[in-house]
Amino acid sequence: MRRPLSRLILLLCLALPAVAGGPVSLRAAPPTFSTEELIDGFMKTVFGLEYRSWSWQPYLVKKYTGPVRFYVHNMAARDRRPTVYRFIEQIGAGIRGLSTIIVPTPEEANFHVYVVDRGQYRDVVRRHIYKDPTADVPGRCLVRVVSDRRGISQSAAVIVSDEGDFLFRRCLVEELLQGLGPMNDDDSLVHSVFNDRSRHSRFTTFDRLLLNMLYHPRIQPGMSPAQVEPLLPAIVREIRPLVN
Description:
Blueprint: E1 8-14, H1 35-46, E2 68-74, H2 81-94, E3 100-102, E4 111-116, H3 118-130, E5 141-148, E6 151-160, H4 165-178, H5 205-214, H6 225-228, H7 232-243
Parallel strand pairs: 2-3, 2-4, 4-6
Antiparallel strand pairs: 1-5, 5-6
């Protein structure tokens, strides 16, 4: 039986080996994916949750319906803001139907990005994500999403800066993209950052296609898999040439 909750609060965290990787980038040789592969990837990432214990109704669409207003809290010794700003701009340029803005004050933001050193991670997650000083803190980085049938109202990501460029870039890409709505990981998605076994540290062509599918105007917050799946073949045909 479903409990009548008014909103959905989701948390995803990442546990990855620290290995070398390339820079955050939208540019890649565009492989060819079949319509069936893209629909399968969409259904696996948009529906379901990596961490089920945080689920209210995981099998509903979650997305922003207005501008995503980012504020970057750089708490790490190294100032990572220029890299984060560039990736936020790339997200806005790479996803049709999504507007991204970097705002000057935290009060204006609906997506907070905390860049921290590992020694700060536990305290920042407890104070700013859980708001509980005794909470257990999972993962090597994480994102939290607050959503209901009107769409996502708030996201907050915590990214670790000082454990190598690969982990920083991987966390930056995966947590910011998941904070936009595709909340599930799947080990079968070899071309995707939404797979903790993959070593992607960039916004891949496959993931750009999935995000463009999600932010197509025919896909609305709160839609179920049964409502969405019949729409996807036509949406794939429409967005494929725009992304490739």
